[in-house]
Structure formats: structure tokens, C-alpha cells
Amino acid sequence: MEAPPAPPPALALHDVSKRYGRHWALARLSYALPQGRSLLLTGHNGSGKTTLLRLVATALSPTHGRVEVRGRDCVEQRDAVRREVALLSHASFLYEDLTAHQNLMVLARLLGLESPSDVADGLLVKVGLTRRSESPVRQFSAGMRKRLAIARLLLKAPAVALLDEPFGELDPAGIQAMEKIIGELKTSGVTVVLATHLIEQGMSLCEERLHLAEGRAVAA
Ligand SMILES: Nc1ncnc2c1ncn2[C@@H]1O[C@H](COP(=O)(O)OP(=O)(O)OP(=O)(O)O)[C@@H](O)[C@H]1O
């Protein structure tokens, strides 16, 4: 009997380059992250981490090469990939005039969840925002926005969670809560790709590491 085919990598980069104008942000990057593993992305400011995460999130397209999520091409199968990935980024894309609770309700309804209000309440407890759940987001601090953004990511329940500087702007309690959430994502089988300058924290959460320097993979 033939062995079943091996599952495709959670994330595969095939000779990926990305150019902004005349500047190459990523250059000929190849990498494969096996399913069941999580990836720590490191590198100095401007080394290409955010660019790579945005390519995987399908917010950008590569100039050359191919990016695949669980065997699907991020350009040709963009919609399918978008259903599987979620990006926690610097720009949090929250609705400023809606409350924290309403922000989560918009997505919960879009996803057709049962009892969306209860789900939103539960997530606001998890990220420590219950006391401000009825405040409009425009009144939120940077750390509060980050907390709400991770709640929204959890609501989407992605197969691959792309976390760009998830600890930035958070207070010590927020960092602890974020570490717990990342641990829970991993336990529930989500592939985590984590870009951070907090290398110790990142190393304790991820099994694999990709270190970028000027858009190329190098030994850390
Ligand atoms: N929209 C853009 N237009 C032009 N150049 C860009 C754009 N976005 C990023 N770059 C450039 O691409 C390179 C990689 O940037 P990127 O944001 O991916 O790095 P990073 O590793 O995430 O940095 P940081 O640690 O500061 O967040 C940098 O030289 C940056 O100036």
C-alpha cells in the first residue's frame, strides 16, 4: 500500500522577491515551515519581516516567486488563503466610531456565528477589555487597540495567525495575556508566525526561526 501523501507545508516561500520602487525589500527567499510548527521571524528594522507577513496575508503580491499557505498560492488562490490567515498588524483596521463590542459584532455577524454577542463578550474578557467594551475605539490607547485587534483575530479563528510585533504597546499584564493567547493558539493547532524584536519571548513560543537581513535569510 502506498503511504498517504505528506501534507503541504503550513507556509512555503519559493524564491520570493518583493520590490518597492527600486528597493528590494525581500530577495530570493526560499523557506518551508512544516505543519504543526510555529515560526519566529527576526531581523533588524527594515529587514523585511512586515513585508513577508503581508505577502502571506495576501495584502501584497510578490514581484517574483511564489508564496503558498497550506499548499495554496497566495495570488492565484487569494480568496481561499484569505479565509485561512489572519494578520495582527501595526495598522489595526478597527472601526473608530464603533465600540469594542460592536467591532467584534461586525465580524461575528459576517462569519455567521451563533450568539455573536456572547462570543464577543467572552473575547473581551480574554483580552482584558470588559470595562471599556462600550467605548468607541477612537478613545482607545495603542495597547487597548492591540488587545482588541487580537480579540478580532481570535474571532476569525484562522488556521495561520500572522502576528506582527504582537507585544508592542502592551503593558506587562498585556504581554502576559498575549503570551498565553499565543500558547493557546498553538495548542489548538493554529500555525503561528511571529515577528518580534523580543527574541527571548519569541524563542520560547516558536520551534522554528527565520532571521532576515536586508530581505535575505541568514543564520541568526
Ligand atoms: N510601502 C513601502 N514603500 C516603499 N518601501 C517600503 C514600503 N514598505 C516597506 N518598505 C521598505 O522595505 C524594507 C522592509 O520593510 P519592512 O517593513 O518589511 O521591514 P521590517 O523588518 O518589518 O521592519 P521593522 O522591524 O522596522 O518593523 C524597508 O527598507 C522599508 O523601507
Automatic annotation (TrEMBL):
One of its GO terms (biological process) is cytochrome complex assembly. Residues 11-220 form the ABC transporter domain. This is ABC transporter involved in cytochrome c biogenesis, ATPase component CcmA. The keyword Transport applies. It holds the Pfam family ABC_tran. SUPFAM superfamilies: P-loop containing nucleoside triphosphate hydrolases (SSF52540). One of its GO terms (molecular function) is transmembrane transporter activity. Gene3D superfamilies: P-loop containing nucleotide triphosphate hydrolases (3.40.50.300).
